Amino acid sequence: MASEDVKSSESAVSKIVNFAEEAKLAREEIKPTSHAVLSICKSLVAGGVAGGVSRTAVAPLERLKILLQVQNPHNIKYSGTVQGLKYIWRTEGFRGLFKGNGTNCARIVPNSAVKFFSYEQASKGILWLYREKTGNEDAELTPLLRLGAGACAGIIAMSATYPMDMVRGRLTVQTEKSPYQYRGMFHALATVLREEGPRALYKGWLPSVIGVIPYVGLNFAVYESLKDWLVKAKPFGLVEDSELGVITRLACGAAAGTVGQTVAYPFDVMRRRMQMVGWKDAASVVTGDGRSKAPLEYTGMIDAFRKTVRHEGFKALYKGLVPNSVKVVPSIAIAFVTYEQVKDLLGVEIRISD
Hints:
The protein has eleven helices and two strands, in the order αααααααααββαα. It is mainly α. It has a single domain, classed as Mitochondrial carrier domain (Mitochondrial carrier fold).
């Protein structure tokens, strides 16, 4: 009897030990390795550096674009790219060209980090589903699937950092003559929360999300598809091996930025204008007869489109497109190339195309 009790106890202990070992193995399989965590951190750093470098390089054009988008048609100060940059230099000096860039970088660094990382993860998930559906283990992402992965990345990154983008727009628009001054990003966030409520931080979010789908989606899709085509087709003898040069990748990024921003630009204009709603000192002007004219109020995205086209014409949807085009071409190109270069420098094995 005692022998049976001992055997029973040993069997129970053995089961407990086996269960503990199985649980340990399961935890080890689920828990990411330190190498994987380090790789993720490096990828996020690369994306953040890419965003900061690319945006600072074109900060004057970014500010001019926003000023052109939101200026009142009854009081034109900025009539073009060259004239606008000269006017800012003359009235506000060198610092005026980079006004709002600190807040912009505070937004774009995490935005870019999340965007690039989200694209990588979305690409992996979509590719796995595609291979499972087709039964082809060697299948690769198509341009349409890359568009979907880029759209997912853009929505996630935009939503995560939108309040900072909203106050950055207001900081960029204000000048020394503005009746009310935001002292910085955190002061602007606190002021908007206090005076306009939490929902004000997401004014213009809908057109932003709708616009970011073709914008970021096309950026990634065009950039990756062009690179893939150049490597495989080797047109004009441009590529002799599987590694593209910096100049070639810059050209791919420039093409991607041009296509994406042209399609999505009207939504960006609506986003900026909706962000200014509720800020009484944003664009109030004095007309030619000396009367004060308040800025238009918008009840939503459709209303913003309708009133803009009615009062200013269809061309108003593309206000600031020229400086934006001049800005986007180098900005997107620099962002993609910087991202890949920093990842190479940090020793991250996974590239965007992988």
